Amino acid sequence: MSTVHLQKRITPFTPYLKDNNKFILGLKNVFSEQECQDLIKRSEQHIYEAALVNFGGGYVIDKTVRDSGRVMLDDHSFAAEIYGRVRCWLPQKIVGHTLSGVNERLRFLRYDVSQQFAPHYDGNFERPDGSEISFVTIQVQR
Fold first, then answer.
1. Pick from 72, 49, 69, 68: which is nearest to 118 by CA?
2. What share of residues in the chain are helix, strand, coil (percent, to 5)?
3. 14-54, pLDDT tens digit by residue?
4. pTM
């Protein structure tokens, strides 16, 4: 499916910018129902492990804060595909930095009925060489 065709069906909701460094934007229909099913199947080829919580630079399991499962996959080409579909909806600059793409580390989260992740702000990821830092989180929901 072409990026142009997708941009016509994608619809934004809940735009929010707080303190000029926390950007939230919901986008519906970034992926078709079939694409979502394919992503779920792909993630389920791996073992969902307990999702960790970052407490001051250290990662721990704390089920009072977060008790979901998570699979992490690195996929440069799929990250580029996501970027192509959503970049026209994202700010080109945030906190003085220019938007450059989507991080290739894809995180698949699974929440069963009673599971939760307490309200929080996502942290930033910075590449070890300092060449890139994240300021935007993209969540895909089906």
1. 68
2. 25, 30, 45
3. 555 555 556 777 888 999 999 999 999 999 999 999 999 88
4. 0.78
